[in-house]
Amino acid sequence: MNTFSIRLVLADDHPAVLFGMQNAIGDINSFKLVGTARNSTEIVDLLNRHPCDVLVTDYAMPSGEYGDGISMIAFLTRRFPDLRVVVMTMMDNPAILNALVAERVHCILSKSDDPSHLVPAVHAAFAGGTYYSPTIRKILEAARSSRNEPSGRHSLTRREAEVIRLFVSGLLVSEIAERLHRSKQTVSTQKISAMRKLGVERDVDLFKYALETGLVASNSMGSEAA
Fold first, then answer.
1. pTM, 2 dp
2. In angstroms, rounded to a whole number, what is the distance separating the alpha carbons of residues 108 and 136?
């Protein structure tokens, strides 16, 4: 008689987190741990060598050949179209979480929530369902509610989006103003308004948001990103 099992790969760049993940699934007979990885290079190597149903991965894992964050998720879902993904993260930026959802990641867990959410999230991912841990659900629901308001804070105007696109490509506010034939004050106000809607407070976070959501490629950024 064949025993049903869900083949898993666990990925995180912190050994203690990997250990905790393994403990969380240790007593589940329907789970078969294929292997663990600490960056995107190791993830792809494992997936190339071993069939896998569900990948449970951290969001930010630097140093891998295939990047991390949104770019890594997008690459993995293209290369392994049958793979289901569960993301565990400390990220609380609604724009980034919505970018994950746009990449068809419908099972997202906050590391600040109880580890017991991992098991139902894996089952949901395997079944093609949706599972958000309480912290993630609260963030996404708040963002959805804001978007439904007339002045939804996550909805950029066309002019705000253009200012952000030019800023993260490396132009100064004064250069953007000259290019768009607007005053520096107008451009600065539109930039501040856009950052507020995106839930970021610092320029460095704005550049990170741009990279994570594919608004601009890392190699196209100018010295402003430094």
1. 0.69
2. 7
